[in-house]
Every structure is written in structure tokens, then in C-alpha cells.
Amino acid sequence: MITCVVDYVIDPEKIADFERFAAEWMRLVRREGGVHHGYFLPAEGASDEARALFSFESLAAYERYRTLFGVDPEFVAADRIRDESGCVIRYRRTFLRPLLPE
């Protein structure tokens, strides 16, 4: 299993747009066989940080999912929410492997 952690810098004035964007990506990750662990948004005070975590069975499975970016109409529409609203200022992806309790 591989988990993708996406750290976002978001526009705090556009949380509703970010939530729409996030809802679409949670649905699309599930559609493509991944497990979405959720988006984590600012909860208290002023903050411009958010995070998402989702897993695929392998790096190869994640890479198959990535081939749909810019091609699949639903992926394009989800990215359009981000691009047109400006809710995401920048983001960074990190890949981790979980060590889970037995």
C-alpha cells in the first residue's frame, strides 16, 4: 500500500470552493479503486493549510489513476473547480507507506 499525502496552501476566503473540489476528488479516488482518508481543513483560527490523504494498493495502481489527469472528463471538471476558483494557492505531494498495528 502507498499513501499519498497532499499538503495544500489554500485561500482561507475560499473554503467552500475547496470543499467542493475536495468532495469531487474523494469520489474520484474511490471510483478508481483508492481509499480516501479525507481532507483535513482549518478548524480554528486563521489558517491557510489543508491536507489530504489517500491510498492505493501499490505505486503502480496510483500511476494508473494518474494517467486519467487531463484526459478523463470528470478529472478535468474537478481540476476546473480549483483553477477557476483559485481556492488552492499551491500544493505538494509526498508518498508514504503505512506501518500499521498488527
UniProtKB/TrEMBL annotation:
Which parts pass through the membrane? none
Q: Which domain of life is it from?
A: Bacteria
Domain NIPSNAP, residue spans: 7-99
Coiled-coil positions:
none
> Cross-referenced Pfam families, in alphabetical order?
NIPSNAP
Which InterPro entries does the entry mention? Dimeric_a/b-barrel, NIPSNAP
From which organism does this entry originate? Amycolatopsis rubida
Q: What is this protein called?
A: NIPSNAP family protein
Signal peptide position in this chain?
Answer: none
